[in-house]
Design a protein that fits this description.
Two copies of one chain form a homodimer. Chain A is α+β, with helices and mostly antiparallel strands. Chain A folds into two domains: 298 residues, Zn peptidases (Aminopeptidase, 3-Layer(aba) Sandwich); 132 residues, Alpha-Beta Plaits. Chain A contains 15 helices and 18 strands. In chain A, the strands form four sheets. In chain A, strands 1, 2, 3, 6, 7, 8, 15, 16 and 17 form a nine-stranded mixed beta sheet that branches. Chain A starts with a helix and ends with a helix.
Amino acid sequence: MLPPAIVHYLQNRRQQHLSSLMELLRFPSIANVQASPDPCVQCAQWLVEYLSKLGLHAELLTPASVGQAPRQAKPNILASAHVRDDAPTLLIYGHYDVQPPDPLELWKSDPFSPQVRDGFLYARGASDDKGQLFAHLMALEAWQQAGGGLPVNVKLLIEGEEEIASPTLEKFMAGHIEQLKADAAVISDSEFFAPGIPSLTTSLRGLAYVEVTFRGPDTDVHSGLHGGAVTNPVNALAALVGALHDAQGRITIDGFYDDVLPPEEAQRRTWAKLPFDEGRYAASLGVETLGGGEKGYSALERRWARPTLDCNGIVAGYTGRGSKTIIPSQALVKISMRLVVNQDPGKVIEGFKRFVAGHTPPGIRSEVKVSGGARPVMLRIDSPSMTAAAEALQEAFGAQTAFIRCGASVPVTEYIQRLLGLDAVLMGWGLPDDGPHSPNEHFALEQLWRGSLAAAAFLGNVGRLGRAVLKIGT
Amino acid sequence: MLPPAIVHYLQNRRQQHLSSLMELLRFPSIANVQASPDPCVQCAQWLVEYLSKLGLHAELLTPASVGQAPRQAKPNILASAHVRDDAPTLLIYGHYDVQPPDPLELWKSDPFSPQVRDGFLYARGASDDKGQLFAHLMALEAWQQAGGGLPVNVKLLIEGEEEIASPTLEKFMAGHIEQLKADAAVISDSEFFAPGIPSLTTSLRGLAYVEVTFRGPDTDVHSGLHGGAVTNPVNALAALVGALHDAQGRITIDGFYDDVLPPEEAQRRTWAKLPFDEGRYAASLGVETLGGGEKGYSALERRWARPTLDCNGIVAGYTGRGSKTIIPSQALVKISMRLVVNQDPGKVIEGFKRFVAGHTPPGIRSEVKVSGGARPVMLRIDSPSMTAAAEALQEAFGAQTAFIRCGASVPVTEYIQRLLGLDAVLMGWGLPDDGPHSPNEHFALEQLWRGSLAAAAFLGNVGRLGRAVLKIGT
């Protein structure tokens, strides 16, 4: 149970906290924009100052430039507060960078001029992830000001490139193991299953991202003069993509499912009880009916526990208005494969490359470029920190915590697991319709208030567990 | 045999003719460009004046605006010279509009500043079609100045929108039947089979052009959060395109080949004797080996006598650098089908639409837009005007004329056949490597000189045949 003083403190400070969060939301901290002065740097500096005022030791660290045409990486923030040596240490992760706001014309208010309407805070980053992160800063302040000091040692890792797939984070973390070492970790960059159902995410899918180019004639050629004599790269690439699934929706790459670990029957039964209406979900995406994925699995199972292969983009030849009768010189497709435990991105990509080689017809030169990968993550449901989080959520939101999965990848989760030897707790307070990557992103103020209570309760619960118990759980 | 005076006249006037043709080539008369003043109108006016100086009655006629967002159609030119009522009338077709010159950076000299280098005239339109058309104007002048007057009545139809698929021509011709009526017709917008092999094209493929859109979720959605639950429009469209051919390269649309008229065995044997090197042809297109089309046919047969289905363009989702993990909201593909006698574009399109309906999976709304069609054309090889043309070519180029086919469509050929009841002669003097739609388009001056001799000889031959004989042939 949270000390009542902390609850009162957080209730009394709502206006100040909201106004600070709105300051934080004013920075257009988009990671793939290069500007001078750089709003990402300005945002990170604001956070360093804010954390320092909370009494944390905070600093801004900029990873080395990356890529062939070097791009200035965005700074990360490391912060810490040491209470005493025998207290457990909690690592809190969040990110301050945000998605680009396009299409701007669909926003009802400026994405970087935060506005409260009907109990919701509208701004780019309100939910993803500045708002979710800020709940932790509120909780830290409440313990310090009203709880007699922090119940645990705290470390913060605040990333600046999450929305561009964390290209420098793994290396950065590997270089700062000592500063990141902890007994438990929490990542708040996820959603409730539904309003009123506080949720902990126990598994994330991995990712293998590839780009296939089929090259035919060295320039576009006339489809009348040469059609039938020369292999059309678009026809051929489409045939390859078409062949990647069979009629049952299964991916046809040799050995693709070999390492897939199916969910336990008990877990499937739990999911079946979640209040999930496939019709309503379809309507929320603007489709008449669901589809995709393998036959024989529910939509939740297909999103959470089955691997997928989706084209993310394709382009070739003439795509303007009207007609142009050419056989395009080349065709390109981008494909993301979502992987589940126990699949290995490297092995999957090798299989994919063999598939492409086997489906490259005469007259075509094919190339496969690998542009990203992430390992799938499975977290223990019954670890002490997971239980501590479930209880904190229940206390703050007054409802039982659901253990769910997520079909997306959050690379830091796997880095924490592999580099720090910790199963992080994925405890977020977003709601499914926050629109984190869409116009009019918003965050419910009630989720912010209760989220800060949950964050505070979690600090208390972890403190009570102690280092020894937490160690058993890992 | 041509009167020697005509041969001498044409020899003596080469400099003047070249310089006039270069004037004509200076107009950037690109049909899909709207400009003021309009270079297409200026080019057409130049031609009207030039034809008037030749003593023809010439006028510029602008078709009505076209399309939903009305586009100003480019003017056509009608011209005529009446010699006497009992002389046969020859209709000569050419077009003054040209392909866009992009990519400009690949041109060695400005596309609209004609330049002679090593016996070749370099300019956009040099071969397609200003140069080929100009040979007829030279021939008309030669007969008038040195042959004692024209041996036939002459009508000219010079189009301004050939390179954008003649969107207004059929209606225009239907509205000017009287002005176009003739006993024979010649179209000079085609190529020799190879240098030194004067050629008459006896068949053109038809065209059915369609655009398929697959629509899924109403915006792009996250491929991690939703992948597996929602049908991916790109996956689905690629599967549709892949299913359009079987492993033998045959098109799988129900009934697609029902009306196909195979070439006669005698014709296949003639083609097999043509000096065609598949390896050299492949190299000229920049591919290691040929492909596409149906197994069991030679490359020439696949280009000339078999129908095809080629994607001309495809686009969906994210196509920039790097990765973006989305399920795109929609995907679009442009497809041209080349048809052979006896296929009907309307019937083919109906079959295509049924195929799309049968390959639209749950969760996708499909749309098929038809953006063009042309009927295939087969011309009689043994008609009097064809023989007159074969002899004229032989006299001018000193080699036997080959009867070949062309895989492309020249819509006016079918309009002349259907609206005027005439089998036009497709007698062009381009060479296969002129690069008519590519940078550094050029026209061999030798083809211009000899082409004008062939045009003059053809006028003489048609005049000698007389109206009655020409009628028998149609």
